[in-house]
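Lecture notes, continued. The same structure-token format from the folding unit now serves as the input rather than the output. Read the line below as a description of shape only.
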């Protein structure tokens, strides 16, 4: 990796020069340089030429809308962050955010006009003023042969996102998250390498995650800590009959710790009947199926009808704006009510502000997880967390 550094640069695409000037001043206060584009057709060329860390853009301008620009940024594989200045109905901004994420862009939560410095600072919390110079835009960060060596050298490992029971206030489970312990780049998140996996490597990774997670769960159980274990599976995984035997054998080796397989609600399944068969066989074995990111796809109710679901996970995009957006609060409350009526758990993801916990509990959510409670951690740290003081004991009092 190149060790040199350069100031963070933001490219601003906005048809209102006054708004662009105000934004430039605010970014300068935060230590970010800006270059201004008034027309969409100039933006991609500037992005390719200058490699900005951030693109800030409106959604409605000139003869080309912001959604079309997002597609052009994705086509040139822009690796930086994208911040939308909505100025439009919130639902439209959310559609643009979801589309950008689906296209592989690193989307920040959109910012309403007029912009406020405190909100802009919060949005850019993870954007360093000085960042290492990365690879050229469009160049994949790693090669297929490196991934093959990662499997051979067992560099793919797991961290665990803790999950807490709102009723008992204690650690109740963990979600297994894969990491790549790269010998040069350090610990890499899934987004840095999962898109490069071939189908065969994807199946190999699923087996690796299952084996590692079940071994860790067995170790916790031997130490007197029994936690539910959640792990993500793809639609292809769920349509593989061999998954049943693989999971069942490993599950029995852990002593029967609760095991939950999460399917992403936005994922498509080519064969609903086959996936339902596999899910049913897992359920008959005593395992559970969860729907992740619930509420952001279009097949939610159909998925609930077809699969033996034990858990819904409310997407973080709704939880993060619980106190700010009445529509988001209504969606969370409705999902929690649906879960109660169906007799299944409802997990709120993305909890960062503990002040939202009383409201989530009042709505009927049963479990919570998020960086405000605990960040993903190695298996060795889970026992200390389970035996220590619960982060829920730090919760702020409810307001109003």
């Amino acid at each position: 990796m190149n060790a040199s550094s350069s100031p963070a640069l933001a490219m601003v695409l906005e048809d209102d020069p006054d708004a662009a000037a105000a934004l430039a001043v605010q970014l300068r206060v935060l230590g970010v340089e800006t270059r201004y584009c008034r027309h969409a057709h100039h933006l991609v060329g500037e992005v390719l030429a200058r490699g900005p860390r951030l693109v800030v853009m409106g959604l409605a301008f000139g003869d080309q809308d912001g959604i079309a620009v997002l597609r052009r940024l994705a086509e040139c594989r822009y690796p930086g962050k994208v911040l939308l200045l909505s100025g439009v109905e919130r639902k439209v901004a959310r559609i643009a955010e979801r589309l950008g994420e689906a296209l592989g862009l690193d989307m920040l939560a959109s910012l309403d006009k007029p912009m406020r410095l405190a909100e802009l600072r919060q949005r850019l919390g993870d954007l360093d003023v000085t960042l290492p110079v990365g690879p050229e835009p469009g160049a994949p960060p790693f090669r297929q042969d490196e991934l093959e060596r990662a499997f051979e050298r067992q560099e793919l490992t797991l961290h665990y996102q803790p999950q807490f029971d709102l009723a008992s206030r204690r650690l109740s489970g963990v979600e297994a998250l894969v990491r790549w312990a790269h010998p040069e780049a350090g610990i890499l998140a899934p987004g840095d390498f999962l898109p490069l996996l071939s189908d065969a490597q994807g199946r190999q990774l699923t087996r690796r995650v299952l084996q590692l997670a079940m071994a860790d769960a067995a170790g916790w159980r031997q130490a007197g800590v029994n936690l539910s274990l959640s792990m993500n599976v793809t639609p292809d995984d769920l349509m593989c009959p061999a998954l049943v035997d693989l999971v069942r054998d490993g599950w029995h080796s852990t002593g029967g710790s609760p095991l939950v397989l999460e399917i992403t609600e936005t994922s498509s399944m080519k064969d609903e009947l086959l996936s339902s068969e596999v899910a049913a066989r897992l359920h008959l074995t005593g395992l559970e199926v969860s729907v992740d990111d619930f509420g952001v796809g279009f097949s939610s109710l159909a998925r609930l009808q077809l699969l033996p679901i034990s858990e819904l996970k409310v997407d973080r995009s709704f939880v993060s704006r619980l106190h700010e957006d009445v529509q988001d609060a209504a969606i969370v409350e409705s999902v929690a009510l649906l879960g109660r009526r169906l007799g299944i758990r409802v997990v709120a993801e993305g909890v960062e502000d503990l002040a939202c916990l009383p409201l989530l509990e009042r709505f009927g959510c049963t479990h919570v997880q998020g960086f405000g409670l605990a960040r993903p951690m190695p298996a060795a740290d889970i026992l200390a967390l389970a035996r220590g003081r619960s982060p829920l004991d730090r919760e702020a009092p409810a307001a109003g």
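Point for the exam: The radius of gyration is 22 Å.
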